[in-house]
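ok here's the first one, seq then struct tokens
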Amino acid sequence: MSRKIIREKKHRLFPEVYTGERIISFTGNIKFRKQFFTNIHIFIQVEDILLEVLKEKECDAYVYLFMPDHFHFILAGKNPNANIKKCIDLFKQKSGFWLKKNYPNIKWQKDYYDHILRSNEDLITQIRYILNNPVRAGIVDYWKAYKFKGSTVYNLNEWD
């Protein structure tokens, strides 16, 4: 009896889509959707890794937000040579190593979801949608009360 090999469906966009000053939204999950980002100390450690990788890969985060079992990022390259996919992949690698060392039962899900944003209007709408995730989940009454978020572009405290 022969075994049929099941291959994962390729769903990444073409590599050139991730290069340059594009704006791409990402969502990544903790494996088995375990609740993990519930402690400010953990958030600060992973945020530091994210900020280091953004700087190294010459990318900005219009917004980043860590829900208890997943993250939402809107990233953009700062110049024509920036590679946003390499940025997100390096973040998952470095934070995954930190997780393995400090929380061996917590892992990132293998892949992530991505979406290209095509206009500034879409950008602001998406940022507001992400910022309101903790409200929709019933974690806080107002998005500003949620601590596990940030931006390298905007001062979110100035937003309504």
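and now the second one, same deal
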Amino acid sequence: MNNKAYFKDKVIIITGASGGIGRAAALAFARCKAKVVLAARNKEKLESLKEEILGQGGLALAIKTDICSFSDTQGMARETILKWGRIDILIANAGQYVQDAPGEIDLQAYERSLAVNFMGTLHAVKSVLPEMLRRGQGHIVVMNSLDAKKGIVGDGPYVAAKAALDGFGDVLRQELTGKGIGVTAIYPGRVDTAMIRHIKVPWISPKMSPEKVVGAIMRGVKRGKAVVVVPRAFSLLAPLNNMFPRLMDRAFRVLRIEGKMIRDQEEVGRDKNK
């Protein structure tokens, strides 16, 4: 069954829909004739995306949502059900790339990262679960990162939140087994979005397009996959780090996986054109 046939008429909530992976996912699912719910804090961007989808003959509902607020995500779920009667798929995608200086342990940065990247996903999941459990049907996509499998220097706050999300997703999948609700955790490498536009990455860890990640999401949901790593070549990262952690530390240092901060717009332009 192709994507259009599989996702047609499904009600799909996408958090973080105003840009990056979320925006690409909204456009892709809308092309499959899904009923797309766009959730993010930026109402103006959501409305613009909604009009773009409607202009292409798709169906979309824009709901201003701050995932750090449980009442907001509850409202998101209620409004979706009022509009379309059900929730078939949640793509818990909203997140924020939060770093700190190596060795400093900036407590505020950690708190901010956990609030958005961990608790925000929990809020969204908890808000849609009652409806999915009532129907005994649904699918939850937890957008994670390869950072959860192998931390990068300077990414402490982001890694901590994604590692917590890794554990939560693993437990959630087990707890929902036999209840008709699938859980797919997506672990992309670096993605070419505004979140990391300020970083020039090494050749071994190139930025992939959001559309490539969306393709992996669609395949993962259709096939009922528990875990999806994209690109697939990075699937060995976690087992190699478990077996040879110091060797992997050294490899990351030699390859400068953390990348280089781009300080000015002229340099951003040069990097983007390469």
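notes on #2: The two ends are 38 Å apart (CA to CA). Confidence is low (pLDDT under 50) at residues 264-274.
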